[in-house]
Amino acid sequence: MPLDSPSRAWPWWPLLPIFPYGRRRTLLRTLVPGEVWSLEQLQGVFSVAVPIRMTVLRLPQGLLLYAPVAPTAECLALLRGLEADHGPVITIVHPTSSGLEHKLPVPAMARAFPEAAVWVTPGQWSFPLPLPLTWLGFPARRTWVLFEQGLPHGDVLEWRALGPVPLGPGPFFEATVLHRPSGTLVLTDALVAVSDRRPELLDLEPRPLLYHARDNGDEPLQDDEQRRRRGWRRLVLFASFFQPACLETVGAWYPFRWREGWEQHFERFSGDGALQVAPILEELVFPRHRERMGAWLRQVAGLEVQRVVPAHFDAPVPATAQDLERLAAAWEAGPQKRKGCASDHDDRALLRGFNARLERLGVVPSA
Question: 305 and 175, same structural domain?
Fold first, then answer.
């Protein structure tokens, strides 16, 4: 099916005009047979495109959608296929208080499943105006607030709260959940794992890979396995740090050059695909409230986890309680003690500088 197929049209893209704009291919993946699936789409800026993932959980009564993606006709057709085999969509969860890329698809997904209950995290906010949820398209009579008004499907799900953390415009809050039948911990942005296992969706639409595999703007887009791998590694560094230290700004047309040894930055950051706190959250959300991330890590380490499914990068990620305990201990030890910490190589300089600027302006409280 071509990318410009009408079934992939997403009419609300002007509200968040990022790649691939009005056309969104959706890829369905089975993560745990008969229990957990993901529907993935690409999103990005300036050809830095990485997948965003909605996770589908099977419940005794039907299906739960966690972190909806754009409900294009193709996406809905894939969901209807899951409904035919496993029952109707009965619950839709918007699991974060921030992140427009996660919030924007929820009202449209709710309209597509008018019988489903909609659950959101506390402290929902909009910018520049603090609008009521109904004005943002959330259905008034079937939208509920997690933790404040209950926790759905407690017979098979265990919910854990990360936050709230004050940010200035509004709080950061993420609702994470363990699907007990499969041992799958589902989360949004808190943790990531990256490796050379690039997403299948980018192999179906490799242009972002090939664009960033080039060393200069005059180089044509050529396709082979080596270029795809190089492009993926660079996309990861771009998406995680915005301007990693191994990137040099050189001009207007192709305004960057990768310094020699940039591959080592990827390898240090990836840590062989181990789970880690997302750099953007560590540097922009949790400098002031590190103890809250540590407490959440300890909580989820106490659950019977077999795998973790974040909304971005690798999934599913094999994980045990011991893995999460080690991550909690490393977090509590501080950034200077963590193995593979990219901050040792100044990759986080841009993020830290931005955070310092926000503190000086009083947008967020000082650490």
Answer: yes
pTM for the structure as a whole: 0.92
Predicted confidence (pLDDT) at residue 359 exceeds the cutoff of 70: yes
Q: Is the domain of 256 the same as that of 346?
A: yes
Backbone angles phi, psi at 38, to 5 degrees: -130, 145
Lowest-pLDDT range, 20-24, 68-72, 247-251?
Answer: 247-251
- Same domain assignment for residues 91 and 174: yes
pLDDT band at 340 (very low <50, low <70, confident <90, very high): very low
Is residue 233 domain-resident?
yes
For the CA atoms of 135, 141, 145, 146, what is the dihedral angle to 10 degrees? -140
**Looking at residue 42, which CATH number applies to its domain?**
3.60.15.10
361 close to 284: Cβ distance less than 8 angstroms:
no
228 Cβ neighbours under 8 A, 6+ residues apart? 198, 202, 203, 206, 209, 210, 213
What are the angstrom distances between the C-alpha of 347 and each of 44, 208, 280, 330, 338? 20, 22, 11, 19, 15
What confidence category does residue 47 fall into, taking pLDDT thresholds of 50, 70 and 90? confident
Residues 217, 232: one domain? Answer: yes
What does each C-alpha distance from 230 to 6, 196, 257 come to in angstroms?
A: 32, 9, 14
Q: Report the share of the chain in percent with pLDDT over 70.
A: 93
Same domain, yes or no: 252 and 297: no
N-terminal to C-terminal alpha carbon distance within the chain: 50
